Structures are given as C-alpha cells and as structure tokens.
Amino acid sequence: MSPASSTSRIAPTAIRIPDLVSHCTFELHIDRNHKLVSAESKKWLFNGDPDLDEAAFHGLEAGRLISMCYFNAGYPQLRVCTDFSNYLFHLDNLSDDMDDRGIDNVANVVMNTIHHPHTYRSPARLNRMTKDFYKRIMQTASPGTCRRFKETMKLYFQAIQQQALDRANGTIPDLESYITLRRDTSGCKPSWVLIEYAYHLNIPDEVMGHPIICGIGEATNDFVAWSNDIFSYDVEQSKDQTHNMIDVIMHEQGLGLQDAIDLVGDYCKRALDRFVHDRANLPSLGPAIDADVRVYVDGLTRWMVGSLHWSFETERYFGKVGKQIKATRLVNLRTKTVHAQVRV
C-alpha cells in the first residue's frame, strides 16, 4: 500500500520513511564482544528487581547498539557504556508514564547519586544502579569528563521534565523550541561524554567548547534524534504521544503526515551534511590534542551510522520486520492502543 498523500482526507494507514541509509555512507563496525557485553549488561539491568518489566526490553539489543558506537573500546568501558544505555532506555520508559513531579523525584535520586556517589543513600533502585555504573566511570575518566557527564545529565532531566509538562498540558511546541529541547531529551549529550571515557581522552574544556567541535556534536545529536523521531513515530502515534518532530511540523506548518516525514528526512540529511562539513574544517590545536579530537569525532561518526542501522535491528520500533522495512521503507501504521503503565 502506498502512503496516503498530504491532500487525502482519509487517515493514512502506511508511511514511507526517507532513505537515510544511502545518505549515511560511514563505515559500520561492531565490537567482537557484542554478545558477551549484551548478556552481562542485561543481567545487571534485571539484577535483584523482579518487578522490572522485562517485556519493555525484549528485543532492544542495546548491547549491539553500543558495540557499534564504541567499537574497539576496552571491555570494561564497553560494559559501562552498555549498562548506561540500558539504564537510559529504562529512564525513558519510566518518564513516558510520569508527570513532572515524578520525574523531579527521579532526577533528585540520580543527580544526588552522581554528585555524592560514596555517601548518598536512597531506597530507590536507581540509587544502586546509578552508583554502580558511575563509580566505574570515575575510576578512569578525567575530571573534565566527569564534570561534563554531570552537566549533561542535569540538562537531560530538565528537558524530560519540560516534555512531561507539555504532555500534561497538551502543548505541541514550535519547531525552534522543539529542536532545542530534543537535543537534551535525546540523551545524546551524556552519551557523547562517554566517548571521552571509553577511549581515555583528556580533552581540555576550551577545546570541547570550540565552536566547530560543538557544531559537530550538535549535528550528530540532530541526526540521531531526528532520525529516531522518524523510526519511533509509529509506536508513538499508536500511544497518542506527540513529542516528535513530525507532529511538531504537521502542527506548525499544516503539512500532511507523509510530507512532514519527508521534511524531517531532509533535516536529517542536512544535519549529516553539516557534520561532514565541520569535520573537514577541524582546527589544529597541537599534536596530542588533535589525536584525542580525532578519536572523539570518530566516536560521533560511529554513533551516526551505528544508531541508524541498529534502528532496523532492534525490535523497539519495527518489531520483527525491521530488515524488511529497511529494504522497502514502507511502514504499516499500528492502530491506537491504551498505553500500559510501566512498573517503576
């Protein structure tokens, strides 16, 4: 079935996703330890919590994602990054069913744990989980890396709290506001910090704050987040969720569904083009710093191509037909369902 056009009065039953795979030609690798790290991290996630909804993680393949994005990192670092990815998906699942006060309570536990990993105590399971992976980060990460991790996690919680307020009020933000918010709700910024941790980088603050390096990180964030909006749209629309760039564009510009999807695809391609342009114009800041910056930018490159291909391999967005959808780009839309509450 062909996707309905924007001029059709009949609600579309299918969409065609943009061809981002052909536009993203970076080389794809996967770490040889991906099966081991996946198994061990899943045990870590479910350890001691019989109430955690395992169905929410069925077919997620977070270990595969991380093994693509942090290819060839040391195994302890690969394991921490995988644990954090599973943890972040857990936070995302929780926040979908929380109001802003609930998210504020979660944020207090997580941020207090990160700031005081040796002394802060809470009965919340997130306290134990956060303490466990953050103590491992602290063992080898530079002070700047740790500081950036704290800062970006704070931004993440502020953003998902605003998202919860918008959801409660039925608010669809304008495109500019949404883009700013999405750069933090994506969880990309702390994931970029973990590139520094995974490869033992010690990049000075002034270098991380350089406009071109910031621009490269922002372009990567935009590509990963906006392409995720395309891939997750069907699941989200079935639950009446509207925190998605496609919904924002339809609401603001009066476009039909397929036209909005095509436009978001164009935005994704432009973000990738921005990345390529800025990467080609990286400044030279000295041999040692340049070497670390190259490793950091390579990590961002892996995130773009890794997250893109993983989106068709995980069951989170397309169930068991991801490979078929990758080939045809045709998605038959789900019917709307009542969203079950995630057990905290």
TrEMBL record:
Keywords: Lyase, Magnesium, Metal-binding
GO MF term list: metal ion binding; terpene synthase activity
Biological process annotations from GO: isoprenoid biosynthetic process
Superkingdom of the organism of origin: Eukaryota
EC nos: 4.2.3.-
Pfam family, one: Terpene_syn_C_2
Known cofactor(s): Mg(2+)
Keyword Cell membrane: no
Membership in a protein family: Belongs to the terpene synthase family.
Protein name: Terpene synthase
Source organism (scientific name): Boletus reticuloceps
